[in-house]
Write a structure and sequence with these properties.
Length: 111
């Protein structure tokens, strides 16, 4: 799972020419997926681990976010740095909540 996630992240970074916003995008998307995986009660524990820590962990990247944020602050780009921080953190947490909430609502309709 981790290898697949890392390949997906690398291809996204390449496609968007290494933009900081591609990092933010994968972090928010990965957070949404992880929230859904965590809330998916029918998944076996090993499947949750492979998909959550493996795929989502390999796809998202806190270290790139931290380095890119540091570079923005050091370059004096405080407005962009603030936006980038908020998108990654507030957007990521909101996306995880959304993913979990949608999964829970959808699973209520199943027998």
């Amino acid at each position: 799972g981790g290898a697949i996630g890392a390949i997906l992240r690398a291809s996204t970074k390449h496609r968007y020419r290494g933009s900081i916003w591609s990092t933010a995008g994968v972090n928010v998307l990965g957070s949404c997926a992880l929230g859904a995986i965590a809330a998916a009660s029918p998944l076996a524990p090993r499947a949750k681990l492979a998909l959550g820590a493996g795929l989502c962990g390999g796809f998202t990247t806190f270290s790139a976010f931290a380095v890119e944020l540091t570079a923005l602050v050091e370059a004096g780009e405080l407005g962009v740095a603030t936006s980038y921080f908020l998108v990654n953190n507030v957007g990521g947490a909101g996306a995880a909540f959304l993913g979990a909430s949608v999964t829970k609502v959808l699973s209520r309709g199943r027998c």
